[in-house]
Design goal:
- By secondary structure, the chain is mostly helical.
- The protein folds into 2 domains: about 30 residues; about 80 residues, lambda repressor-like DNA-binding domains (434 Repressor (Amino-terminal Domain)), CATH 1.10.260.40.
- Helix 4 packs across helix 5.
- The protein is elongated.
- The N and C termini lie far apart (about 40 Å).
Length: about 120
């Protein structure tokens, strides 16, 4: 198995070098400007999608409830890493839940009680 992974890695490096030389085209290009231009998701709507209280959603994001309330009520705007984290939550909620053991356990409880 290790040889297979090593061979894939070598092939990837060779492909990277050919792209750098200009003999091959990249299959996709992500520009920082494109990522930065995308707006901040609606925090209240995002929390509703997760079906979490403000306290639980704030804990999931690692912020205070006051900060979350300020975002939801439009008094403040998420900045920097918080904005990126919210974009990740909006586009790939499983990624956010995968790194939070408390959210996973609470979502399991929700599923059981709904059954």
């Amino acid at each position: 198995m290790r040889k297979v992974l090593f061979d894939e890695l070598v092939a990837s490096v060779k492909e990277m070098k050919s792209i750098q030389r200009g003999t091959a085209r990249a299959s996709r290009v992500t520009k920082a400007e494109d990522v930065m231009r995308s707006g901040t998701p609606d925090v209240a709507a995002l929390r509703a999608r997760f079906k979490l209280s403000q306290a639980k959603f704030a804990a999931l994001l690692g912020i205070s409830v006051d900060t979350l309330q300020n975002w939801e009520q439009g008094r403040r705007e998420p900045e920097g890493p918080a904005k990126v984290l919210l974009r990740i939550a909006a586009t790939n909620p499983e990624a956010l839940l995968a790194v939070s053991p408390t959210a996973r356990s609470s979502s399991k409880r929700t599923r059981r009680s709904a059954a």
